[in-house]
Amino acid sequence: MKQVCDINKCTGCSACMQVCPKKCIKMLPNKQGHIISVIDEQQCINCERCVKTCPANYPPAFNYPKQCYAAWAKNEDVRMSCASGGISTVLSEYIINNGGIVYGCAILKELEFKHIRVDNIKDLELLKGSKYVYSNCEDVYKNIKQDLSENKKVLFIGTPCQNTGILNYIGKNENLYTIDLICHGFPSQQMLKELFAQVDIKDIKSVKFRENNVRKIIYEKQNGENITICNLSKQRWQNYYYEGFLSKTIIRNSCFECLFSKPKRIGDITLGDFWGIGKKEKFEHSTKNGCCACLINTDKGQNLFNNIKDNIECYERNINEAIEGNHSLREISKKNLNSIIFNFLYPKINFNSAVFLSCFDKILKYKIKKTVKTGISLFQRNKTK
Ligand SMILES: Cc1cc2nc3c(=O)[nH]c(=O)nc-3n(C[C@H](O)[C@H](O)[C@H](O)COP(=O)(O)OP(=O)(O)OC[C@H]3O[C@@H](n4cnc5c(N)ncnc54)[C@H](O)[C@@H]3O)c2cc1C
Ligand code: SF4
Ligand code: SF4
Ligand code: SF4
Prior knowledge:
- By secondary structure, this protein is α+β, with helices and mostly antiparallel strands.
- Among the domains are: about 5-55, Alpha-Beta Plaits (2-Layer Sandwich), CATH 3.30.70; about 65-185 and about 250-330, no CATH class.
- The chain has 13 helices and 13 strands.
- The strands form three sheets. The chain has an eight-stranded mixed β-sheet with strand order 5-4-6-7-11-12-3-13, with helices on both faces. A three-stranded antiparallel β-sheet has the order 8-9-10, with no helix packed on it. Strands 1-2 form a two-stranded antiparallel sheet.
- The N and C termini lie far apart (about 75 Å).
- The site of one iron/sulfur cluster has 13 residues, from helix 2.
């Protein structure tokens, strides 16, 4: 066997590696640092188990959402410390308090992002917040299987492609709850490390990509000191990593062929940002501290969600409102010229230069807009003097 699936469709979920009886699949970085599956052909016995487990070849069943809610955690600390409204944390707390296990993305030492197993409330802190980068799920497959074999409830939270890897590997299981995040793609960990090239990564304890619902990059040093690298609400194109991510310039190829950016969903529950709420149908509550779009896709998801209702503010909304407000619920990230140029340049030249050159049109547009705006406000100020 040469490859498990079309390599441009490989999401790096690592399900193939887990099922291979000869252990001859490795997850390795390509040139841009995106993790892909690589088969050692010498050892392969052509059993095709990898091919049949791969979600890019055989995605699991999709469900159209039964209900849609705008929701956030009643606990303001939880709401403010999470990316959208903290619903993933409230659901995780419920699972742990009922003897279950949660699997989600954490930052380990030296900027390593991995899905980890959490069995206590304190460690849920590690999962809080969206990390806008690839998370390695390699280690969690066997643990999830083991927990389920001991009749424990398991909650897995991740991008839809990570969910499909788990679902294809495990198969149907009443105790397995899945949450898929609305997602437009992720950059590689190699790219994020370039952002911190000037910093001793051993000194980085954690990284935040949002604070109080504002897009920022803040890292915490081992001594607890917080250093803000950028604040996109104040200045766009201040940080090439974040802008490259948002403009879909630095995301992996599989994201341009994503099977999951549509209203029909993979997880029992889908969580994302409830952008555009109240535009068409009045919504009388403030969402400035975060508001999750919660799509309930299965009966299992509905039961789980009902159990947390005392701990959240929650309002039923029309699903079309969430779809209209959220691009990634409607369509796949379109392959753009910026990403083609970026993939050609990087890593021949360093990361920042590659983003700068590939996004020159966007940067120029932003700078012109900003100069014109500043010019107009200066002119108006002088006129009123
Ligand atoms: C890579 C990525 C891209 C996203 N893109 C969009 C988008 O385009 N539109 C949109 O509406 N929402 C997007 N989201 C989802 C959004 O940022 C929130 O995660 C979601 O709304 C849930 O919010 P929350 O406040 O409940 O939880 P949060 O506190 O934000 O999320 C915590 C949960 O997310 C999981 N998680 C964090 N980082 C990762 C990661 N890198 N990989 C897998 N799981 C992770 C953690 O395990 C944790 O359980 C994206 C999330 C990620 C991780
Ligand atoms: S065909 Fe079988 S042996 Fe070969 S890589 Fe796939 S799972 Fe492994
Ligand atoms: S998508 Fe997942 S299962 Fe398929 S080849 Fe890539 S890592 Fe393997
Ligand atoms: S856009 Fe699709 S393929 Fe890319 S990370 Fe998100 S779910 Fe996975």
